[in-house]
Design brief:
single chain; Nuclear Transport Factor 2, Chain: A; six-stranded mixed β-sheet
């Protein structure tokens, strides 16, 4: 039970990192991302990035396209033990993007997996793709 409560508290940190990312600030996401393998991203454009350094570089590159907006997580379910945790749901954002005249709505189906490193949760996998309806 303690691991679940700990992960639920951590999800507030995760959400805050996502909020900062859409503002163009990658640092909070970098702090909660794995610095050693394994680490992967299956991105909304169909890409697959593997390796902690590569994932962190992809995030640093991707954040440059964002300039603020709104962001929410609709968690369908989440769970964890003392070593691994996950959440699954919908991430709904309306973001200002470079080269766009008006804010762009982005709804993604998301699965994220985290592992415990010492006392901290670290993001080791993100799978996000476009929500077709809903």
């Amino acid at each position: 039970m303690e691991a679940k409560n700990d992960f639920e508290r951590f999800m507030e940190v995760r959400k805050a990192a996502s909020d900062e990312f859409i503002k163009g600030n990658v640092e909070p996401l970098k702090r909660i991302s794995a610095a050693r393998p394994p680490a992967t991203i299956f991105g909304p454009k169909g890409d697959c990035v593997q390796g902690a350094e590569e994932v962190n570089a992809a995030n640093a590159n991707g954040v440059r396209h964002f300039g603020g907006g709104t962001n929410s997580f609709e968690i369908m379910h989440m769970s964890g033990d003392d070593q691994l945790a996950y959440w699954v749901g919908i991430q709904r954002s309306v973001v200002n993007m470079q080269g766009k005249d008006s804010p762009l709505p982005i709804d993604l189906r998301v699965t994220e997996i985290f592992r415990r490193e010492g006392k901290d949760w670290k993001l080791i996998h993100r799978h996000a793709d476009k929500l077709v309806s809903g």
